[in-house]
Design a protein that fits this description.
805 residues, alpha+beta, 20% strand
Length: 805
């Protein structure tokens, strides 16, 4: 007995020692926010003040010193995230996560981002400020790798760090650009629906813009089984440890409509939720330059930013910049394919993908003139024809400069946007971005406001519908008339004194309604409806607007759907639920009951309407696309829609009334099962929640340490406070994405502009800034973005970087 006690005591002591050692180790991994550090390749001491939310305010003698310092402090908070971001485009996630991410690596290695990045770096102007400052930033990251503390994630996964290079920067931008696109999830699915059921079944989807969605007004002021492609790409993005861009809101209000007569800019880019979050904030101040910017991990220049003179933000354009082409092989030689100029040879390339838990994988990449053949890159695609993916980002080559050197547009563009002198120079440099398509919003202290789209736009022949898989051999489907940048939709200082974007379609360009994957009119209608009548906007008003939870369309959708329901067929609880819906004004607050009923009903209505034709997998895929949100309002009230009939019941033809009544009853039954029989207990807060999940936090053992949340959260799909979820019958609906930041820039009080991040500034779990903004975010609150040095110093810690001797 004494021996057992002794053994137990030894074991307990060992556990305590191990736990103590772990705590001590974790303490050593904390970012350093005060004191002194030596840093190479800076000319003079550089001071960084970290404010109370961990935002670095970098005061440097010159931009090169500032950028080196930025790289260092960015790395100490986000090195793990940087490592993830640089690995996805070249197909290097399997090296650290093993074979479960081999599918993702095969696809991204095959579509050519890495080669495009390599070419871009080789053609850079090495004397440009863009090149010099980007390399200074990378130097700061690499110095941290050499002398800083390794993040706990890198130790857990046994990752040996390599130096960061400019190719990594381009690869990060490349993945970001791909995640903006929607065609890869939508075109193949629509092609399958057309081929199986005919064009009548696509009328409800409004693929030609016929649903009458709210369109952005331009204004020039003074200055087969193809759906397997969809399933595979959607699955890759779903399981990716790196979040994808999904939407956004932004509006800029001119001084004529604000109380203080100055411009106010609001922006909340929508990105899939993750931990750490997407943006790292940093404020740089030099004698010749200042910017308060939002940076993606591993990139040197901000995609969002402001200073005392101007501010800019972005949303997704949702234009169509990806097309798929079915190639026609030579019947006598399967290594050739047909073109308008005769047969051409496919090109072949082999890549090696390293896999942590198994042997290296040899990937053979086949390509046509249209792009890589995805048959070998995506699982499940059994088409007899080779299908090529043509993406503007990799198809468009850099254009030569006057001196003969070549320029990579996207890095130069992001540099120029953060160094603009005025609206004219800002506008001009947007032309450098060929992809992704963005709505870039601008406002300045002089009173200018603007909405300008980026992207290389084109027209195709009238016979071609780019919503489908195209013919690669006929010489018609792939013929493009490239539009000059001057034709890109834009509104510059419009006489209605505001601009906005909510991923909705712009007005026709010279009579041509530009194709894309636009979101429904809900957010645009609400934004426009709030902005138009009011002429005394303040920062406080805008802060309430950016967290607005009222749907512009749900009330009318409910009115139309409930018309078909016969009250005599309803139970007592169903009647109560119907009454709640009929009295609903479209709000989606935590205590509301109607959103729980409405979203459950929408799921069952969609399931009972579409799943019988599409099958379970393709139906779930449809739920993940933008197009399903676009068509609900119109299809649900179209009594003649062919989708109402259940193809599995051969003896009868179901009607709109039958399907909507059936789905409503199913929704109520589901809520009774999940939340009880009292309708008053069906509050939205019990269903709608958010958790910010770390890639390692997906393992239950580590979830409490790495993940943030969960929290009940207000908002819903397609309100201004857009909390994205996929319709389902789950007891808890998790918001998968939403505002990645909320920013409000007020030029009447620029030093008191405000913002919030979903979790925190740091990606280090041991930092106090890992999750210190999460409660502010879920409760719709803000904190200040400081620009005044005296105010910053009062509450900040101070870290001084001294030049290494």
């Amino acid at each position: 007995m004494k021996l057992l006690k002794k053994i137990a005591l030894i074991l307990i002591s060992l556990i305590i020692l191990i736990a103590l050692a772990l705590v001590i180790y974790l303490q050593t991994t904390k970012p350093i926010y005060e004191g002194e550090e030596n840093l190479g390749n800076i000319s003079k001491p550089t001071t960084v003040y970290f404010d109370e939310y961990g935002v670095p305010h970098i005061y440097a003698d010159n931009q090169k010193d500032a950028m080196t310092t930025l790289g260092y402090v960015h790395a100490q908070d986000r090195l793990w995230q940087m490592e993830l971001m640089r690995r996805i485009a070249p197909g290097r996630l399997s090296e650290i996560f093993g074979s479960k991410l081999l599918k993702t690596d095969k696809f991204f290695a095959g579509i050519g981002i890495d080669e495009n990045s390599k070419e871009a770096v080789a053609n850079l102007d090495k004397n440009s400020q863009t090149y010099i400052l980007a390399n200074a930033y990378l130097d700061g990251i690499n110095q941290y790798i050499e002398q800083g503390t390794k993040p706990v994630e890198l130790r857990l996964l046994g990752i040996k760090q390599e130096k960061f290079t400019l190719k990594d920067v381009y690869n990060i931008f490349g993945f970001m650009s791909f995640s903006f696109a929607m065609a890869q999830k939508t075109d193949p699915l629509l092609t399958d629906i057309r081929d199986k059921f005919g064009m009548d079944y696509l009328k409800d989807f409004g693929i030609n813009g016929e649903l009458g969605t709210k369109q952005l007004k331009s204004f020039q002021g003074k200055y087969k089984e193809y759906s397997e492609i969809s399933k595979s790409v959607a699955g890759l993005l779903e399981c990716s440890p790196i979040p994808a861009f999904i939407g956004s809101n932004s509006w800029v209000i001119g001084g004529a409509k604000t109380k203080n007569g100055k411009v106010i800019l609001a922006n909340d880019p929508h990105i899939m939720y993750s931990q750490p979050g997407t943006w790292y904030e940093a404020h740089i101040s030099c004698p010749d330059y200042e910017i308060y910017g939002y940076y993606i991990a591993g990139t040197p220049f901000p995609l969002l930013g402001h200073n005392h003179n101007y501010a800019y933000g972005l949303t997704m354009f949702e234009n169509d910049d990806v097309d798929f082409f079915a190639e026609e092989d030579n019947p006598n030689d399967n290594k050739q394919y047909k073109t308008i100029d005769g047969f051409k040879n496919y090109t072949y390339k082999q890549k090696i993908i390293k896999v942590k838990d198994s042997a290296d994988f040899k990937l053979n990449v086949k390509a046509s003139i249209h792009g890589p053949i995805v048959n070998g890159l995506l699982d499940g695609l059994k088409s007899e024809k080779s299908v090529a993916m043509s993406w503007i980002y990799t198809q468009q080559k850099p254009e030569p400069k006057a001196n003969g050197a070549k320029l990579n547009e996207i890095l130069e563009a992001v540099y120029q946007l953060s160094h603009a002198k005025d609206l004219e120079s800002f506008h001009k440099n947007i032309e450098l971005i060929k992809a992704p398509g963005l709505n870039i919003m601008y406002g300045d202290a002089k009173g200018n406001i603007a909405w300008i789209t980026s992207g290389k736009l084109y027209k195709v022949d009238k016979s071609v519908n780019t919503n489908f898989i195209l013919n690669g051999a006929n010489g018609i489907d792939d013929k493009k008339e490239w539009l000059p940048f001057a034709k890109n939709p834009a509104a510059i200082n419009p006489d209605w004194n505001y601009v906005y974007s909510a991923n909705n379609q712009p007005e026709a360009i010279d009579g041509y309604l530009y194709p894309g994957y636009y979101l429904p009119k809900d957010r645009a209608t609400r934004i426009d409806g709030l902005l138009s009548p009011k002429n005394n906007w303040t920062k406080e008003d805008v802060s309430k607007m950016i967290t607005d939870n009222t749907s512009a369309t749900a009330e009318s959708v409910v009115a139309n759907m409930t018309k078909t329901i016969n009250p005599a067929l309803l139970s007592e609880n169903e009647t109560k639920a119907l009454t709640v819906l009929k009295n609903w004004k479209g709000s989606n607050e935590l205590e509301d009951i109607a959103p729980s009923i409405y979203n459950k009903w929408i799921y069952f209505y969609l399931k009972d309407t579409f799943e019988d034709e599409l099958g379970e997998e393709s139906f779930n895929l449809l739920l993940s696309t933008h197009i399903v949100k676009q068509m609900i309002a119109a299809q649900s009230q179209n009594a003649a829609s062919p989708w109402w009939d259940n193809v599995n019941t051969k003896e009868k033809k179901e009607t709109q009334s039958e399907i909507l009544t059936q789905s409503f009853k199913e929704a109520v039954a589901s809520l009774e099962k999940q939340l009880g029989s009292d309708v008053n207990d069906w509050q939205w807060k019990k269903i709608h929640k958010v958790e910010f999940q770390h890639p390692i936090g997906k393992v239950k053992l580590f979830s409490k340490f790495f993940n943030v949340g969960s929290f009940p959260i207000s908002g819903t799909n397609e309100v201004i406070n857009n909390q994205l979820f996929i319709y389902s019958d789950d007891a808890e609906i998790l918001a998968k994405g939403g505002p990645s930041t909320r920013r409000i820039i007020d030029f009447s009080d620029i030093e008191n502009s405000c913002s919030v991040l979903p979790t925190g500034q740091s990606g280090n779990p041991m930092s106090k800034h890992y999750d210190d903004q999460s409660e502010l975010f879920v409760n719709g609150k803000f904190r200040k973005m400081k620009l005044n040095k005296a105010e910053i110093i009062k509450t900040a810690t101070k870290l001084v970087f001294k030049p290494k001797e």
